[in-house]
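Bug #77: duplicate submission created two jobs. Keeping one. Sequence:
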Amino acid sequence: MNNPLKNMTKKEWILWIISLSIVIVSNLFSSNFDLLTLVAALVGVTSLIFAAKGNVWAQILMIVFSILYGIISYRFRYWGEMITYLGMALPMAVWSAITWLRHPSGSDGNEVEIQILHRTQLLYVGGASVVVTFVFYLILDALDTPNIVFSTISVVTSFLAAALTMLRSSYYALGYAANDLVLIVLWTLASLENPAYIPVVVNFTIFFFNDMYGFISWKRREILMDL
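Kept job's structure:
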């Protein structure tokens, strides 16, 4: 695997540095500084930058982020988030890493090859999403999960994002961006009870903008691929 930093553009360096700076400042100046939350955010932001490049290191960092975020979610009893990232996002990140390694771009081996999804694949993803929604709602309800509606939506959007990532679709980033918005709501509700979680809200806001950049980056490559 190559060094992902070598192929970053000036724009991506600026986005990465600004994102890291905002995350660091928001966490350090929090009244309840939590090192684990800061480390998870730094790993997450870096993963998103590498994902925008289609580099497999993004999935390796996502494995690390899933573990850290699962621990953070456990602390607040957000069982849906914990189960989603440890039981679904983590193994799917492993699967995605293998898939990305097996499908390098023909024009540039440093990037994963983008796949245009067929109708059958979309139907499978849609059907699986319905099943995931139903099953996880029952699990979360049994665990008396706080803010269960948003937690369930978060599970579904996270599943869609992970599935589209594994399938090498440019729409993976929109799935994660949607998940970011849900998580901003979830952790805003959590921060009303404990201000220590305010930095988590800031972290996912930064994630949202990075995911949108990832979508734009992949769509640009997809357009060039069709020329």
